[in-house]
Amino acid sequence: MPRRLRHPRWWALLVLGLWLGYALAMLTRLPTWAFPLVTGAWLLLALWRRWGAPANPRPATRVWPWSLFPLSLWGFYVYLAASFGEVDLGAVFFHLQAGISEHGGSGRILSALLHTLGMLLLLAAFTWLVRVDRRWRTTERLLAVMLLAANPMLYGLGQRGAAIVTDDGAWLDRQYVEPVILDAPRSPPNLVLLYLESLERTYADPERFGDAYAPLKALGERALVVEGVRQLDNTGWTMAGMIASQCGTPLMPAGLLHDSQFEPLGRVVPGIDCLGDLLAERGYALSYLGGASTRFAGKGVFYRDHGFARVMGREELEPRLADPDYVNSWGLFDDTLYDLTVEEIRRLERQGEPWGLVNLNLAAHAPNGYPARACRDRQGEFDGADILYSVECSTWLARRLVERLEAEGLLENTLVVVASDHLTMRVSAWEQLVAGQRENTLMLLGEGVEPRRLRVEASTMDVLPTVLEAMGFVIDWHRAGLGVSLLSDQPTLIEEHGLETLNARLREETALQERLWEGLAPSQRTPPPDAVIAPRG
Q: Which domains does the chain carry?
Protein backbone atom coordinates (compact mmCIF):
# COMPACT_ATOMS: atom_id res chain seq x y z
CA MET A 1 0.00 0.00 0.00
CA PRO A 2 1.43 3.44 -0.90
CA ARG A 3 2.65 5.42 2.10
CA ARG A 4 0.21 8.25 1.29
CA LEU A 5 -2.79 5.93 1.65
CA ARG A 6 -1.52 4.72 5.02
CA HIS A 7 -1.77 8.27 6.36
CA PRO A 8 -4.75 8.74 8.76
CA ARG A 9 -5.87 11.69 6.65
CA TRP A 10 -7.23 9.48 3.88
CA TRP A 11 -8.88 7.05 6.24
CA ALA A 12 -10.62 9.93 8.02
CA LEU A 13 -11.70 11.54 4.74
CA LEU A 14 -12.90 8.18 3.39
CA VAL A 15 -15.10 7.61 6.46
CA LEU A 16 -16.58 11.11 6.11
CA GLY A 17 -17.16 10.60 2.39
CA LEU A 18 -18.82 7.22 2.89
CA TRP A 19 -21.16 8.68 5.49
CA LEU A 20 -22.01 11.61 3.23
CA GLY A 21 -22.85 9.31 0.32
CA TYR A 22 -24.81 6.93 2.52
CA ALA A 23 -26.80 9.73 4.15
CA LEU A 24 -27.73 11.29 0.80
CA ALA A 25 -28.81 7.91 -0.56
CA MET A 26 -31.01 7.28 2.49
CA LEU A 27 -32.51 10.77 2.83
CA THR A 28 -33.13 11.62 -0.81
CA ARG A 29 -34.25 9.82 -3.93
CA LEU A 30 -30.66 9.54 -5.06
CA PRO A 31 -30.25 6.03 -6.52
CA THR A 32 -28.17 3.62 -4.51
CA TRP A 33 -25.59 3.28 -7.28
CA ALA A 34 -24.77 7.00 -6.88
CA PHE A 35 -23.55 6.37 -3.33
CA PRO A 36 -19.88 5.74 -4.35
CA LEU A 37 -20.00 8.67 -6.80
CA VAL A 38 -20.77 11.04 -3.94
CA THR A 39 -17.91 9.56 -1.91
CA GLY A 40 -15.54 9.91 -4.87
CA ALA A 41 -16.58 13.55 -5.43
CA TRP A 42 -15.96 14.26 -1.75
CA LEU A 43 -12.44 12.77 -1.90
CA LEU A 44 -11.60 14.78 -5.03
CA LEU A 45 -12.80 17.95 -3.31
CA ALA A 46 -10.75 17.06 -0.24
CA LEU A 47 -7.68 16.50 -2.43
CA TRP A 48 -8.15 19.84 -4.18
CA ARG A 49 -8.72 21.75 -0.92
CA ARG A 50 -5.96 19.81 0.88
CA TRP A 51 -8.28 19.03 3.80
CA GLY A 52 -6.33 17.43 6.59
CA ALA A 53 -3.01 18.56 5.01
CA PRO A 54 -3.06 22.38 4.73
CA ALA A 55 -0.28 24.18 2.85
CA ASN A 56 0.81 25.96 6.03
CA PRO A 57 0.23 23.32 8.71
CA ARG A 58 0.11 24.19 12.39
CA PRO A 59 0.48 21.85 15.35
CA ALA A 60 -2.62 19.78 16.06
CA THR A 61 -4.86 21.19 18.79
CA ARG A 62 -6.61 18.91 21.25
CA VAL A 63 -10.17 20.22 21.00
CA TRP A 64 -13.57 18.57 21.05
CA PRO A 65 -15.70 19.72 18.12
CA TRP A 66 -19.03 21.35 18.85
CA SER A 67 -20.51 19.35 16.00
CA LEU A 68 -20.22 15.96 17.67
CA PHE A 69 -23.70 16.17 19.18
CA PRO A 70 -25.38 17.51 16.01
CA LEU A 71 -23.62 14.80 13.98
CA SER A 72 -24.89 12.15 16.41
CA LEU A 73 -28.46 13.41 15.99
CA TRP A 74 -28.07 13.25 12.22
CA GLY A 75 -26.64 9.74 12.52
CA PHE A 76 -29.73 8.64 14.43
CA TYR A 77 -32.00 10.24 11.86
CA VAL A 78 -30.14 8.53 9.00
CA TYR A 79 -30.54 5.22 10.83
CA LEU A 80 -34.31 5.75 11.03
CA ALA A 81 -34.44 6.65 7.33
CA ALA A 82 -32.35 3.60 6.41
CA SER A 83 -34.62 1.35 8.46
CA PHE A 84 -38.05 2.76 7.67
CA GLY A 85 -37.74 4.93 4.56
CA GLU A 86 -40.07 7.78 5.56
CA VAL A 87 -39.23 8.96 9.09
CA ASP A 88 -42.39 9.54 11.12
CA LEU A 89 -41.54 11.12 14.47
CA GLY A 90 -45.08 10.46 15.65
CA ALA A 91 -44.35 6.74 15.35
CA VAL A 92 -41.20 7.11 17.44
CA PHE A 93 -42.99 9.02 20.20
CA PHE A 94 -46.00 6.70 20.24
CA HIS A 95 -43.99 3.48 20.41
CA LEU A 96 -41.82 4.83 23.21
CA GLN A 97 -44.96 5.60 25.21
CA ALA A 98 -47.13 2.63 24.22
CA GLY A 99 -44.33 0.11 24.73
CA ILE A 100 -42.11 -1.84 22.35
CA SER A 101 -41.90 -5.14 24.22
CA GLU A 102 -42.57 -8.32 22.24
CA HIS A 103 -41.58 -6.73 18.95
CA GLY A 104 -40.30 -9.01 16.21
CA GLY A 105 -37.67 -6.72 14.79
CA SER A 106 -34.72 -8.58 16.28
CA GLY A 107 -33.07 -8.55 12.86
CA ARG A 108 -32.67 -4.80 13.17
CA ILE A 109 -30.43 -5.17 16.23
CA LEU A 110 -27.42 -6.02 14.05
CA SER A 111 -28.23 -3.06 11.82
CA ALA A 112 -28.39 -0.79 14.87
CA LEU A 113 -25.01 -2.08 16.10
CA LEU A 114 -23.41 -1.50 12.69
CA HIS A 115 -24.85 2.01 12.53
CA THR A 116 -23.51 2.71 16.01
CA LEU A 117 -20.03 1.49 15.03
CA GLY A 118 -20.15 3.58 11.86
CA MET A 119 -21.26 6.59 13.88
CA LEU A 120 -18.30 6.22 16.26
CA LEU A 121 -15.93 6.06 13.29
CA LEU A 122 -17.56 9.20 11.85
CA LEU A 123 -17.15 11.13 15.09
CA ALA A 124 -13.53 10.00 15.40
CA ALA A 125 -12.75 10.98 11.79
CA PHE A 126 -14.39 14.39 12.17
CA THR A 127 -12.58 15.04 15.44
CA TRP A 128 -9.24 14.22 13.81
CA LEU A 129 -9.93 16.54 10.87
CA VAL A 130 -10.90 19.45 13.15
CA ARG A 131 -7.81 18.99 15.29
CA VAL A 132 -5.27 18.89 12.43
CA ASP A 133 -6.85 21.40 10.02
CA ARG A 134 -7.29 24.94 11.33
CA ARG A 135 -9.70 25.83 8.52
CA TRP A 136 -12.18 23.25 9.77
CA ARG A 137 -11.57 24.33 13.35
CA THR A 138 -12.52 27.97 12.64
CA THR A 139 -15.75 27.13 10.79
CA GLU A 140 -16.83 24.12 12.78
CA ARG A 141 -19.06 26.03 15.25
CA LEU A 142 -21.05 27.50 12.38
CA LEU A 143 -21.37 23.99 10.95
CA ALA A 144 -22.72 22.79 14.32
CA VAL A 145 -25.44 25.44 14.25
CA MET A 146 -26.33 24.59 10.66
CA LEU A 147 -26.54 20.88 11.44
CA LEU A 148 -28.85 21.54 14.38
CA ALA A 149 -31.07 23.93 12.44
CA ALA A 150 -31.42 21.55 9.50
CA ASN A 151 -32.14 18.38 11.49
CA PRO A 152 -35.73 17.25 10.70
CA MET A 153 -36.14 15.75 14.17
CA LEU A 154 -35.54 19.06 15.92
CA TYR A 155 -37.67 20.82 13.31
CA GLY A 156 -40.53 18.45 14.04
CA LEU A 157 -40.20 18.96 17.78
CA GLY A 158 -40.18 22.69 17.24
CA GLN A 159 -43.39 22.51 15.24
CA ARG A 160 -45.14 20.53 17.96
CA GLY A 161 -43.96 23.07 20.51
CA ALA A 162 -45.20 25.92 18.35
CA ALA A 163 -48.62 24.25 18.19
CA ILE A 164 -49.09 25.12 21.86
CA VAL A 165 -49.11 28.83 21.04
CA THR A 166 -50.62 28.69 17.57
CA ASP A 167 -53.58 30.96 16.83
CA ASP A 168 -55.77 28.02 15.84
CA GLY A 169 -54.93 24.58 17.21
CA ALA A 170 -58.45 23.21 16.71
CA TRP A 171 -58.99 23.28 12.95
CA LEU A 172 -59.05 19.52 12.52
CA ASP A 173 -61.16 19.06 15.63
CA ARG A 174 -63.82 21.32 14.09
CA GLN A 175 -63.94 19.01 11.06
CA TYR A 176 -64.44 16.00 13.33
CA VAL A 177 -67.94 14.47 13.26
CA GLU A 178 -68.69 12.06 16.07
CA PRO A 179 -69.48 8.61 14.59
CA VAL A 180 -73.20 8.02 15.06
CA ILE A 181 -75.33 5.25 13.52
CA LEU A 182 -78.77 6.69 12.85
CA ASP A 183 -80.36 3.59 11.36
CA ALA A 184 -79.44 -0.03 10.62
CA PRO A 185 -80.63 -2.69 8.20
CA ARG A 186 -83.12 -5.30 9.46
CA SER A 187 -80.49 -8.03 9.07
CA PRO A 188 -77.13 -6.32 9.59
CA PRO A 189 -74.25 -8.04 7.77
CA ASN A 190 -71.18 -9.59 9.31
CA LEU A 191 -67.78 -8.02 8.72
CA VAL A 192 -64.37 -9.47 7.85
CA LEU A 193 -61.65 -6.82 7.82
CA LEU A 194 -58.35 -8.18 6.50
CA TYR A 195 -55.34 -5.93 7.03
CA LEU A 196 -52.46 -6.88 4.76
CA GLU A 197 -49.31 -5.63 6.42
CA SER A 198 -47.52 -2.97 4.33
CA LEU A 199 -49.19 -4.17 1.14
CA GLU A 200 -49.80 -0.89 -0.62
CA ARG A 201 -51.69 -0.71 -3.90
CA THR A 202 -48.62 0.79 -5.55
CA TYR A 203 -47.49 -2.81 -6.11
CA ALA A 204 -50.35 -3.20 -8.60
CA ASP A 205 -48.22 -1.61 -11.34
CA PRO A 206 -47.00 -4.61 -13.42
CA GLU A 207 -44.33 -2.56 -15.21
CA ARG A 208 -42.49 -1.97 -11.93
CA PHE A 209 -43.50 -4.99 -9.86
CA GLY A 210 -44.50 -7.76 -12.26
CA ASP A 211 -47.22 -10.14 -11.05
CA ALA A 212 -46.64 -9.66 -7.31
CA TYR A 213 -50.08 -8.04 -6.86
CA ALA A 214 -51.88 -10.24 -9.43
CA PRO A 215 -53.83 -12.43 -6.95
CA LEU A 216 -55.44 -9.34 -5.40
CA LYS A 217 -56.13 -7.92 -8.84
CA ALA A 218 -58.05 -11.08 -9.66
CA LEU A 219 -60.02 -10.80 -6.41
CA GLY A 220 -60.71 -7.16 -7.20
CA GLU A 221 -62.50 -8.04 -10.43
CA ARG A 222 -65.59 -8.79 -8.35
CA ALA A 223 -65.09 -6.10 -5.73
CA LEU A 224 -65.31 -2.37 -5.28
CA VAL A 225 -61.68 -1.34 -5.73
CA VAL A 226 -60.81 2.11 -4.43
CA GLU A 227 -57.85 3.80 -6.07
CA GLY A 228 -56.14 6.88 -4.66
CA VAL A 229 -56.16 6.15 -0.90
CA ARG A 230 -53.29 8.33 0.28
CA GLN A 231 -51.37 8.33 3.56
CA LEU A 232 -51.72 11.24 5.96
CA ASP A 233 -49.07 12.00 8.58
CA ASN A 234 -49.50 10.04 11.83
CA THR A 235 -51.18 7.16 9.99
CA GLY A 236 -48.06 5.46 8.63
CA TRP A 237 -47.45 2.58 11.04
CA THR A 238 -49.60 -0.38 12.03
CA MET A 239 -51.43 1.00 15.09
CA ALA A 240 -51.85 4.39 13.44
CA GLY A 241 -53.14 2.82 10.23
CA MET A 242 -55.69 0.70 12.08
CA ILE A 243 -56.86 3.66 14.16
CA ALA A 244 -57.14 5.86 11.07
CA SER A 245 -59.30 3.30 9.26
CA GLN A 246 -61.38 2.25 12.29
CA CYS A 247 -61.66 5.58 14.12
CA GLY A 248 -61.46 8.09 11.28
CA THR A 249 -58.62 10.10 12.76
CA PRO A 250 -54.81 10.21 12.73
CA LEU A 251 -53.06 8.79 15.77
CA MET A 252 -51.58 11.81 17.52
CA PRO A 253 -49.28 10.52 20.30
CA ALA A 254 -50.50 11.14 23.84
CA GLY A 255 -47.41 13.18 24.71
CA LEU A 256 -47.70 15.14 27.94
CA LEU A 257 -51.42 14.33 28.16
CA HIS A 258 -50.42 10.93 29.54
CA ASP A 259 -50.26 11.04 33.33
CA SER A 260 -47.43 8.54 33.82
CA GLN A 261 -44.82 9.45 31.27
CA PHE A 262 -42.61 6.44 31.95
CA GLU A 263 -45.32 3.77 32.03
CA PRO A 264 -47.03 2.11 29.07
CA LEU A 265 -50.41 3.50 28.08
CA GLY A 266 -53.31 2.00 29.99
CA ARG A 267 -55.80 3.02 27.28
CA VAL A 268 -55.49 3.90 23.60
CA VAL A 269 -57.52 6.82 22.17
CA PRO A 270 -60.20 6.53 24.88
CA GLY A 271 -61.86 9.82 23.96
CA ILE A 272 -63.48 8.67 20.71
CA ASP A 273 -65.74 5.91 19.41
CA CYS A 274 -64.34 3.59 16.76
CA LEU A 275 -65.69 0.84 14.55
CA GLY A 276 -65.61 -1.72 17.37
CA ASP A 277 -67.54 0.55 19.73
CA LEU A 278 -70.26 1.18 17.16
CA LEU A 279 -70.68 -2.49 16.25
CA ALA A 280 -70.54 -3.72 19.85
CA GLU A 281 -73.38 -1.35 20.72
CA ARG A 282 -75.39 -3.05 17.95
CA GLY A 283 -74.86 -6.49 19.47
CA TYR A 284 -71.94 -7.65 17.32
CA ALA A 285 -69.56 -10.31 18.64
CA LEU A 286 -66.10 -9.01 17.74
CA SER A 287 -62.77 -10.83 17.46
CA TYR A 288 -59.25 -9.75 16.55
CA LEU A 289 -56.57 -12.17 15.33
CA GLY A 290 -53.02 -11.23 14.42
CA GLY A 291 -49.81 -13.13 13.95
CA ALA A 292 -47.74 -10.77 16.10
CA SER A 293 -47.98 -10.07 19.82
CA THR A 294 -50.89 -7.91 20.97
CA ARG A 295 -48.59 -6.45 23.63
CA PHE A 296 -46.60 -4.53 21.05
CA ALA A 297 -47.49 -0.82 20.69
CA GLY A 298 -50.73 -1.05 22.67
CA LYS A 299 -52.51 -3.20 20.08
CA GLY A 300 -54.32 -5.41 22.57
CA VAL A 301 -55.21 -2.44 24.76
CA PHE A 302 -56.81 -0.68 21.79
CA TYR A 303 -58.99 -3.60 20.72
CA ARG A 304 -60.10 -4.58 24.22
CA ASP A 305 -60.90 -0.95 24.97
CA HIS A 306 -63.01 -0.57 21.83
CA GLY A 307 -65.56 -3.35 21.87
CA PHE A 308 -63.62 -6.54 20.99
CA ALA A 309 -64.44 -9.48 23.26
CA ARG A 310 -61.71 -11.79 21.91
CA VAL A 311 -58.25 -10.40 21.18
CA MET A 312 -55.73 -13.01 20.10
CA GLY A 313 -52.13 -12.57 19.04
CA ARG A 314 -48.98 -14.60 19.20
CA GLU A 315 -49.29 -15.49 22.90
CA GLU A 316 -52.83 -16.83 22.53
CA LEU A 317 -52.48 -18.50 19.12
CA GLU A 318 -49.01 -20.06 19.22
CA PRO A 319 -50.02 -22.84 21.69
CA ARG A 320 -52.68 -23.93 19.16
CA LEU A 321 -50.15 -24.61 16.38
CA ALA A 322 -49.64 -28.18 15.24
CA ASP A 323 -45.96 -27.37 14.79
CA PRO A 324 -44.87 -25.04 17.65
CA ASP A 325 -41.56 -24.33 15.89
CA TYR A 326 -43.26 -22.97 12.79
CA VAL A 327 -43.06 -19.27 13.74
CA ASN A 328 -40.94 -16.30 12.77
CA SER A 329 -39.40 -13.48 14.81
CA TRP A 330 -42.70 -11.57 14.81
CA GLY A 331 -45.06 -14.48 15.28
CA LEU A 332 -47.26 -16.78 13.18
CA PHE A 333 -46.86 -17.28 9.46
CA ASP A 334 -49.91 -16.34 7.43
CA ASP A 335 -50.96 -19.83 6.37
CA THR A 336 -51.38 -20.99 9.98
CA LEU A 337 -52.86 -17.62 11.02
CA TYR A 338 -55.51 -17.96 8.32
CA ASP A 339 -56.29 -21.54 9.37
CA LEU A 340 -57.02 -20.24 12.86
CA THR A 341 -59.00 -17.36 11.36
CA VAL A 342 -61.29 -19.81 9.59
CA GLU A 343 -61.80 -21.68 12.87
CA GLU A 344 -62.73 -18.43 14.63
CA ILE A 345 -65.22 -17.44 11.92
CA ARG A 346 -66.83 -20.88 12.18
CA ARG A 347 -67.21 -20.30 15.94
CA LEU A 348 -68.68 -16.84 15.43
CA GLU A 349 -71.09 -18.11 12.79
CA ARG A 350 -72.40 -20.82 15.12
CA GLN A 351 -73.43 -18.21 17.69
CA GLY A 352 -76.21 -16.95 15.44
CA GLU A 353 -75.65 -13.24 16.10
CA PRO A 354 -73.97 -10.64 13.89
CA TRP A 355 -70.21 -10.78 14.14
CA GLY A 356 -67.09 -8.97 13.04
CA LEU A 357 -63.52 -10.17 12.69
CA VAL A 358 -60.39 -8.10 12.19
CA ASN A 359 -57.24 -9.85 11.03
CA LEU A 360 -53.66 -8.60 10.59
CA ASN A 361 -51.10 -10.66 8.66
CA LEU A 362 -47.30 -10.50 8.46
CA ALA A 363 -46.14 -11.83 5.09
CA ALA A 364 -45.08 -8.51 3.53
CA HIS A 365 -43.65 -6.92 6.69
CA ALA A 366 -40.59 -4.80 5.95
CA PRO A 367 -37.75 -5.13 5.30
CA ASN A 368 -37.88 -8.59 3.65
CA GLY A 369 -41.19 -10.14 4.60
CA TYR A 370 -42.06 -13.51 6.12
CA PRO A 371 -43.35 -15.76 3.32
CA ALA A 372 -45.21 -18.81 4.60
CA ARG A 373 -44.38 -22.43 3.90
CA ALA A 374 -47.37 -22.70 1.57
CA CYS A 375 -45.91 -19.90 -0.56
CA ARG A 376 -42.48 -21.48 -0.69
CA ASP A 377 -44.06 -24.70 -1.93
CA ARG A 378 -45.85 -22.68 -4.64
CA GLN A 379 -43.27 -20.02 -5.54
CA GLY A 380 -39.99 -21.85 -5.03
CA GLU A 381 -36.98 -20.84 -2.96
CA PHE A 382 -36.99 -17.45 -1.19
CA ASP A 383 -33.71 -15.51 -1.32
CA GLY A 384 -34.43 -13.82 2.02
CA ALA A 385 -34.44 -10.29 0.55
CA ASP A 386 -36.87 -9.92 -2.36
CA ILE A 387 -39.93 -8.15 -1.00
CA LEU A 388 -41.90 -8.88 -4.19
CA TYR A 389 -41.74 -12.58 -3.36
CA SER A 390 -43.33 -11.78 0.02
CA VAL A 391 -45.88 -9.44 -1.55
CA GLU A 392 -47.03 -12.17 -3.91
CA CYS A 393 -47.24 -14.57 -0.97
CA SER A 394 -49.41 -12.13 0.98
CA THR A 395 -51.79 -11.44 -1.90
CA TRP A 396 -52.14 -15.11 -2.85
CA LEU A 397 -52.88 -16.24 0.70
CA ALA A 398 -55.42 -13.45 1.22
CA ARG A 399 -57.25 -14.39 -1.97
CA ARG A 400 -57.15 -18.06 -1.00
CA LEU A 401 -58.62 -17.24 2.43
CA VAL A 402 -61.57 -15.36 0.92
CA GLU A 403 -62.24 -18.16 -1.56
CA ARG A 404 -62.02 -20.75 1.21
CA LEU A 405 -64.53 -18.86 3.37
CA GLU A 406 -66.87 -18.53 0.38
CA ALA A 407 -66.62 -22.23 -0.39
CA GLU A 408 -67.64 -23.07 3.18
CA GLY A 409 -70.61 -20.69 3.04
CA LEU A 410 -69.16 -18.51 5.79
CA LEU A 411 -69.48 -15.23 3.89
CA GLU A 412 -73.25 -15.12 3.43
CA ASN A 413 -74.53 -11.66 4.38
CA THR A 414 -70.94 -10.62 5.06
CA LEU A 415 -68.90 -7.63 3.94
CA VAL A 416 -65.24 -8.41 3.28
CA VAL A 417 -62.80 -5.51 3.40
CA VAL A 418 -59.22 -6.00 2.23
CA ALA A 419 -56.90 -3.11 3.12
CA SER A 420 -53.27 -2.32 3.73
CA ASP A 421 -52.58 -0.98 7.21
CA HIS A 422 -50.13 1.59 5.81
CA LEU A 423 -47.61 2.18 3.05
CA THR A 424 -44.56 -0.02 3.32
CA MET A 425 -41.33 1.05 4.93
CA ARG A 426 -37.93 0.65 3.26
CA VAL A 427 -37.72 -2.60 1.29
CA SER A 428 -35.73 -4.02 -1.62
CA ALA A 429 -38.09 -2.36 -4.14
CA TRP A 430 -37.89 1.04 -2.44
CA GLU A 431 -36.55 3.02 -5.39
CA GLN A 432 -39.34 1.73 -7.64
CA LEU A 433 -41.98 2.47 -4.98
CA VAL A 434 -40.98 6.09 -4.46
CA ALA A 435 -40.67 6.73 -8.20
CA GLY A 436 -44.33 7.78 -8.36
CA GLN A 437 -47.39 8.54 -6.26
CA ARG A 438 -48.09 5.86 -3.69
CA GLU A 439 -51.46 4.66 -2.42
CA ASN A 440 -52.97 2.11 -0.07
CA THR A 441 -54.97 -0.99 -0.88
CA LEU A 442 -58.73 -0.86 -0.29
CA MET A 443 -61.33 -3.22 -1.75
CA LEU A 444 -64.80 -4.25 -0.57
CA LEU A 445 -66.68 -7.45 -1.46
CA GLY A 446 -70.25 -8.14 -0.46
CA GLU A 447 -73.72 -8.95 -1.72
CA GLY A 448 -74.76 -5.31 -1.88
CA VAL A 449 -71.47 -3.92 -3.17
CA GLU A 450 -71.30 -3.22 -6.89
CA PRO A 451 -68.01 -4.42 -8.44
CA ARG A 452 -66.31 -1.40 -9.97
CA ARG A 453 -63.25 0.82 -9.80
CA LEU A 454 -63.53 4.08 -7.91
CA ARG A 455 -60.81 6.70 -8.40
CA VAL A 456 -60.84 9.35 -5.68
CA GLU A 457 -58.44 11.43 -3.61
CA ALA A 458 -58.96 9.90 -0.18
CA SER A 459 -57.11 8.76 2.92
CA THR A 460 -57.34 5.80 5.27
CA MET A 461 -59.54 7.97 7.52
CA ASP A 462 -62.31 7.56 4.93
CA VAL A 463 -62.41 3.79 5.45
CA LEU A 464 -64.57 3.97 8.61
CA PRO A 465 -67.62 5.74 7.11
CA THR A 466 -67.24 3.81 3.85
CA VAL A 467 -67.39 0.47 5.67
CA LEU A 468 -70.37 1.57 7.77
CA GLU A 469 -72.35 2.61 4.70
CA ALA A 470 -71.31 -0.52 2.80
CA MET A 471 -72.80 -2.51 5.70
CA GLY A 472 -76.09 -0.66 5.25
CA PHE A 473 -75.84 1.66 8.25
CA VAL A 474 -77.05 5.25 8.01
CA ILE A 475 -74.58 7.77 9.49
CA ASP A 476 -74.54 11.53 10.04
CA TRP A 477 -73.84 13.46 6.81
CA HIS A 478 -72.07 10.36 5.36
CA ARG A 479 -69.25 11.18 7.76
CA ALA A 480 -67.48 9.63 10.76
CA GLY A 481 -64.50 11.18 12.48
CA LEU A 482 -62.53 13.03 9.82
CA GLY A 483 -63.59 10.53 7.18
CA VAL A 484 -66.19 10.77 4.42
CA SER A 485 -67.95 7.77 2.91
CA LEU A 486 -66.55 7.06 -0.52
CA LEU A 487 -69.94 5.59 -1.45
CA SER A 488 -71.49 9.06 -1.16
CA ASP A 489 -71.19 12.12 -3.36
CA GLN A 490 -69.50 14.12 -0.60
CA PRO A 491 -65.88 15.27 -1.18
CA THR A 492 -63.19 14.01 1.16
CA LEU A 493 -61.04 16.36 3.22
CA ILE A 494 -58.14 15.68 0.86
CA GLU A 495 -60.28 16.67 -2.13
CA GLU A 496 -61.39 19.82 -0.34
CA HIS A 497 -58.11 20.94 1.21
CA GLY A 498 -55.27 18.83 -0.18
CA LEU A 499 -52.91 16.41 1.56
CA GLU A 500 -50.25 19.03 2.29
CA THR A 501 -52.76 21.35 3.96
CA LEU A 502 -54.07 18.56 6.18
CA ASN A 503 -50.55 17.54 7.19
CA ALA A 504 -49.71 21.17 7.98
CA ARG A 505 -52.85 21.50 10.09
CA LEU A 506 -52.00 18.26 11.86
CA ARG A 507 -48.68 19.70 13.00
CA GLU A 508 -50.51 22.62 14.61
CA GLU A 509 -53.37 20.68 16.16
CA THR A 510 -53.89 20.44 19.93
CA ALA A 511 -57.66 20.10 20.36
CA LEU A 512 -57.92 16.86 18.41
CA GLN A 513 -55.08 15.39 20.44
CA GLU A 514 -56.95 16.25 23.63
CA ARG A 515 -60.10 14.66 22.20
CA LEU A 516 -58.26 11.44 21.39
CA TRP A 517 -56.62 10.98 24.73
CA GLU A 518 -58.80 12.79 27.22
CA GLY A 519 -62.10 13.48 25.52
CA LEU A 520 -61.83 17.10 26.62
CA ALA A 521 -63.40 18.64 23.53
CA PRO A 522 -67.22 18.72 23.56
CA SER A 523 -69.10 16.39 21.24
CA GLN A 524 -70.32 17.95 18.01
CA ARG A 525 -73.72 16.70 16.88
CA THR A 526 -73.93 19.39 14.19
CA PRO A 527 -70.94 20.47 12.13
CA PRO A 528 -69.77 24.09 12.40
CA PRO A 529 -70.04 26.26 9.29
CA ASP A 530 -66.49 25.61 8.09
CA ALA A 531 -67.02 21.85 8.36
CA VAL A 532 -69.96 21.73 5.96
CA ILE A 533 -68.83 20.28 2.63
CA ALA A 534 -70.29 20.40 -0.82
CA PRO A 535 -71.16 17.31 -2.89
CA ARG A 536 -68.43 15.70 -4.98
CA GLY A 537 -68.53 16.68 -8.62
A: 3-163 (no CATH), 171-531 (3.40.720.10)
